Amino acid sequence: WDYCECNPLSHSTANWSATAEWTALAILQLPATATAQAIQLSAAAERRGRASLLVSTDPPYYDNIGYADLSDFFYVWLRRSLGDIYPELFNTLLTPKAEELIASPYRHGGKEKAQEFFENGLGKVFENIRKVQPVEFPMTVFYAFKQTEGTEAELGGGHPGRQKEQAGETHAPQTSSNLHGETADPQSQHVSTGWETMLSGLIDSGFAITGTWPMRTELGNRMVGAGTNALASSIVLSCRPRPADAPVATRHEFLAALKKELPDALRHLQDGNIAPVDLAQASIGPGMAIFTHYAKVMEADGSTMGVRAALGLINQLLDEILAQQEGEFDAETRWALAWFEQFGMEDGPFGEAETLSRAKNTAVNGLVEAGIISARSGKVRMLKRSELPSDWSPGTDKRLVHWEIAQHLIRALENGGETVAANILRQLGSNGELARDLAYHLYNLCDRKKWAQETLAYNSLIIAWPEISKLAYKTPGTSQTQEEMFR
Questions:
Q1: Does pTM surpass 0.70?
Q2: Closest by CA position to 382, among listed 348, 412, 352, 414
């Protein structure tokens, strides 16, 4: 559990004096005639006769956080010390929990009933908002929840240096539709239940997503984020009532619209330097904006496509788009990607390496000269970052390849920080941006294989890229500011 309390008598962030000062500064920005009222109410309870309300909300995260349980950690001590002073605030032994809108199995008699409670409650909330939402303005929903989910063992990660059977191929496909056929595995079994439930509630209550922005809301120094691939961004969904005359689309029409619009949207996100760990959930916005443009999407068998199936198709197309970007890389890097996906950092047969090199229009001896593999005794192995020469310089390397560049940038960042990485980037020209694109591709590959340590390396490079670029060129890098992404 991560919580925000600190020592109020300290001189650190959020000490008592600073908090009072910041609050006063905020109040001073209000018009002199402004009035405000804070009310604690149930968002799921229907209320009639209320004026229009402009709503911005960060909904509960399914079963991910037990807010009331966390409150009890502090409540029991506050009740002992302040119960006589504020009896109306502390008239219960523990904090109220019956109406708390989370999917808590122990509170509702099992997982299914907890899910039903959460789904029904969230649906009522969005229905109530729909009735009071002014037509002039959108509702905004902030959500920071990983787009995919897996078993505890899978999410715990692994490493490409371990055995291949541990590194991947752990998914048991469920029956669904893919991009090209009628039945396949669109990764729907790993679509986040939190995202699915939240989006279903939005859509079923009559909202459509009209815009989406990733916003860097999470501090890198928070406890849950330290040394992990925790999300750095919240996704802000701009939602308006869906028009009554919204069209009905077939599955084919929905896919055609996705293929037309999603690649540009994803490139826009990458240009804005979205962290790879956030890319999958950020792609939900433009993808679901297309999906919610329609009153409904019809499957080939006449049934209505659900949110989980739509998210699965969006995930598949995201993988395809990243795979298509592979064509931008040099032949040696394309070989390295295929080999890395199959063998990780383990030894592989020389014969397979040679066959793959011919398919990728390169040669094993050329890969050795490029400094990305070791080939001896009939075995071939990718060189680890720790094995790369510490005195490497792109200016003196006669056979620069994008794979090598990306690995050296990560090594420089890990060992010497952003300044050392900037010294390398300054010498790379356009190859630097291609190395960044490769980091996105490799993050996606390693995330699919559950190689947690490697995903952390590529994610860290992208997050640090704006500062590295700034130091390299002495001016802000080419990545967009958050304000520019709203234009």
A1: no
A2: 348
Identify which of 170, 126, 138 has the alpha carbon closest to the alpha carbon of residue 151. Answer: 170
3-state secondary structure of 196: helix
The CA distance from 427 to 487, in Å, is 32
Give backbone dihedrals phi and psi of 379, rounded to 5 degrees, phi first: -125, 150
Alpha helices in 133-234 (DSSP H): 152-155, 164-167, 193-204
CB 244 within 8 A of CB 230: no
Instruction: For residue 431, give the nearest of 460, 403, 459, 452 by alpha carbon.
Output: 403
Question: 229: which residues sit within 8 A by CB, 6+ positions away?
Answer: 277, 447, 452, 455, 456, 459
- Helix/strand/coil for 328: helix
Q: In whole angstroms, what is the distance from residue 82 CA to residue 167 CA? A: 53
Instruction: Give residues with Cβ within 8 angstroms of 77, minimum separation 6.
Output: none
* CA–CA dist 279, 272 (Å, integer): 11
Q: Are 288 and 199 in contact (CB under 8 A)?
A: yes
| C-alpha–C-alpha distance, residues 121 and 362, integer Å | 58
Summarised one tens digit per residue, pLDDT across range 219-228 is 554 444 444 4
The full DSSP string for 240-294 is EEPPTTPPEEEHHHHHHHHHHHHHHHHHHHHHTT--HHHHHHHTHHHHHHHHTTS
CB-CB contact of 480 with 271 (8 Å): yes
Task: Check: CB of residue 191 under 8 Å from CB of residue 308.
Answer: yes
Q: Are 313 and 186 in contact (CB under 8 A)?
A: yes
What is the share, in percent, of the chain residues with pLDDT greater than 90?
28
Task: Give residues with Cβ within 8 angstroms of 245, minimum separation 6.
Answer: none
pLDDT > 70? residue 16 = yes
Q: Where are the alpha helices (DSSP H) in 392-451?
A: 402-416, 418-425, 431-449
Q: Which stretches does DSSP call E strand in 55-138?
A: 56-57
Residues 6+ apart with CB under 8 A from 268: 485
What integer is the mean pLDDT of 413-442?
A: 90
- Element (DSSP H or E) covering residue 457: helix 452-473
